[in-house]
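Technical note accompanying the year-one report. For the benefit of new consortium partners, we illustrate the data format agreed upon in the data management plan: each record pairs a sequence with a structure-token string. No post-processing was applied to the example shown here.
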Amino acid sequence: MNGSSNTYTKESIVNRTNDNKPKLLDLVRIEMRTKHYSKRTEEVYVNWIKEFVRFHHMKHPNTMGENEISKYLNYLAVSRKVSSSTQNQALCSIIFLYKHVLKINVGEFDIVWAKKPKKLPVVLTKEEVKQILINLKGTTWIVGNILYGSGLRLLECLRIRVQDIDFTNNQIIIRNGKGGKDRVSMLPFLVKDALKAKLADVKKLHLKDLKKGYGKVYLPYALERKYPSANTEFKWQYVFPSESLSKDPSSGALRRHHMNESIIQKAVKEAIKKAGINKTAGCHTLRHSFATHLLENGTDIRTIQELLGHTSIETTMIYTHVINQGPFGIKSPADNL
């Protein structure tokens, strides 16, 4: 503390007091892990809470309320000109702090919301997708084909475990996707042989790790306590493991995590450049193209919603505006002259 119970020093936001009671951000992390939030979401929320406290000159959140929250959110929209999604992310982080950590019910906010422009997703043609995939090699080629052929988000793909690939039924099980939901998507026949060869290499790598005293993979929630030996089993290993071992920031254990998403992102960007495609595209564009091309082929919108893991059909409906048939699927009158 900085001589007052109503203010924090920068250090006291994170550190513990002399009697070892957890401080604010420790409590936030504990609560988020109890509720099974992802590590990435945890870090995002923690960073926004830090920003909120610093904006109000290190005042204790217990002494603040609706006015201070509104002032901070308006500052983000007006002065920093953040997007509406970023502003909403900050609000969710602060509400989590008050509702679940401090157990304080905050009321209504007088907020100037950042404008959310309506943007259509960038979509590639089938020929453009083909040219991108031609310029990918090895593991990046497999991942690229799964992003496009299964409609997965990049991290969903990299987090696939060995047991989530069902070669018999030609499907991939996506565990704990966005919103904490599981779903199933198709496994592209094109990648089956390459994926089987990849898994053979992963198994060799896993056996080497076990011989060296490693080979334990991260398990979600309390599975590691429930099944103490499961983290060394091959079926739990990542299909796309990292080339090197790394320290788990939560436990300090040395493990082989999945490969870093930046490797795939850079490879796809380079493939797009080599293909001569003049669109602002990336890994997620392959997912957009998956949905759009399914629509063009006559796939039912509800089926596409399930494959993508969208909670709302309105989210999936955006692809009806970018299918290769003109707006609303109608022809221009000029084409009938």
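Partners are asked to follow this layout when depositing records. The mean pLDDT is 87.
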